[in-house]
Amino acid sequence: MADNLLPYNDAKYQRFNESLDEDCKIEANGQVKVGGTQFQPSRILYEMEPIGYADAYQDFLNSEYERIKEVVYNQYPSCIAYNFRLSEKGEGAADPVRKLLHLKDTWESIVFVLYSIVWGEIRHKGIDLKAAQVLVGVSPTGAVHKNFNTDRLISDALKTKIQNLKAVIEFARANNLGLKCEEIDPELLDKLLALQDIRNDISHHTTPTREEAEAELLQVVPIFKEMLMMTEFLADCKILRFESFSTKCRCEEFNGHFLNKEFGDFDFGANQAFVLGLGQEQLFIKWETELFSLSPFLHFLKDTVGRETYISFFKGKKESKYWFEPITKRQEISFDHLQARFDAEQANLISLIVP
Questions:
Q1: Residue 180: CB partners within 8 Å, gap ≥ 6?
Q2: Could you give the 3-state DSSP secondary structure of residue 78?
Q3: Cα dihedral across residues 26, 32, 38, 43: positive or negative
Q4: Distance between CA 225 and CA 162 in Å, rounded?
Q5: pTM recorded for the entire structure
Q6: Which runs of consecutive H residues, i.e. helices, occur in 155-209?
Q7: CA–CA distance from 81 to each of 107, 289, 328, 338 (Å)?
Q8: I need a labelling partner for 116 at 20 to 30 A (CA). Which of 39, 57, 85, 211 fits?
Q9: 171-201: per-residue pLDDT in tens?
């Protein structure tokens, strides 16, 4: 900030300063009025007390983070809510190693859910994205972008998935495609990339030591908080599975941190035929007024006693099979009876994204 030309503390200006102070009042529209001119209080604080502004923002962030915790626990897709609750209230929440791993599972779950949402909408609406390009590296002359290919689409690398999401969302925004996923802020994806980079740099291949986890948490937690604040739209994303129909569609619901089976009755109106056509073997999303399938990137695994159902993330394609990792499980499984359907869904996406 440039030095003031007038010496504020000079006696000749004292009365003037006092008159301004007496005239200063908070207007009904949230402005500060000084000498007939209005200013934003936040701008004044930002310009005059940058440290105070930063401290006030941190207090705000902490307050908002406490608020959004309950939203995540009760309204977010279950795979996210379950892992996040473990990081805050689980048995190992006080242990830095376990807390870090639960936070990692949380942000990875967010990536998997976003991936299924974005590609699900693209496939459902048949949007041609062959002109979209994705960042693949950096050369001495700058960023290197290339068209999508099949390997990128079904890659098991989290960073690749995030880069794919960012490319699609930025392309859709730039071309005003009118997709629901355009509401996803690209900065959210930058935060997820930052978290993944920290994870890769410090202890990607092995379980971290306590000391490594404590050091990593110092880097992760501030970014994670800001990232989570940008995902509140996920509270409106209801992951469902059609179960039966009488006068309404009875659907299994996958939101909130509990994994036990819960069902609700839904009137989908003009979209009822679409839901009935999905059948009982795939997950779909209700994002406000939008409805579309999340297959093949999200599926589900029922337990053997009928009490719980686990959202399962598509991890990659190996030996001509689609492999998934169910939430709470650490082993990959395939749904062999659905391989032909998964192939058809993948082929549909490839026709839309790969030149």
A1: 121, 287, 288, 290
A2: helix
A3: negative
A4: 18
A5: 0.86
A6: 158-174, 186-203
A7: 11, 22, 12, 27
A8: 85
A9: 999 999 999 999 999 999 999 999 999 887 6
